[in-house]
Amino acid sequence: MAPKKKSARASATKKKPVARRPAKPAARQPAKASGQVKRQLVEAFQREHERTRKVLRALPADQSEMRPHPKAKTMRELAFMFVMEQSLLKRMLLGEPGSGMPPAPDRLDTIVELFDRGAGDLIAAIQRVPDSGFEDMVKFPTGPGPNGPTIGDWTKQAFAWFMLADQIHHRGQMSVYLRIAGGRVPAIYGPSGDEPWR
Fold this sequence. Notes:
The protein is mainly alpha-helical. The protein has a single domain, classed as Four Helix Bundle (Hemerythrin (Met), subunit A) (Up-down Bundle), CATH 1.20.120.450. The chain contains five helices and two strands. A two-stranded antiparallel ribbon has the order 1-2. Strand 1 and strand 2 form a beta hairpin. Helix 2 packs parallel to helix 5 and helix 3 runs parallel beside helix 4. The longest helix has 25 residues. The protein starts with 7 loop residues before the first helix and ends in an 18-residue tail after the last helix.
């Protein structure tokens, strides 16, 4: 069967291609409002510090050397990690040289005091970083490597959020220590068995 011919009317009404103007370049996204990154970090660290502080203050002092497994840190050693991470982040943000890893104090109450003091120092450090400085790079391990940890580049902003996430991770770990040690687990993001919402 022969193909149908287009009618003259259809041919006449067929639209001619219209020359299109080049598309406008996409509008640049406005830069983040001045101080937004800094404000978000300060608020997040202040909020999470209070939650971590509640857990640390609930630790039974007479159980400081308790460890739930031979490979695990003692309660005292784990508590000191919060202090060390605050100090590390402060140094990274301000470009200060490292000073090694001091031994954990013998007393849990001393560690909690250091954590409280370190929280204030860290907030002050965040506020000292200029807005543009949060995109500066720092070196820190990114994962395992053949001869030890692989060192990679982090923006100061990404590193700060990573360290806050690690604090939250270890706080959850500490809440398990606290339960095993017979302490009262405080409400953190929601009610706990010892602090129900009612």
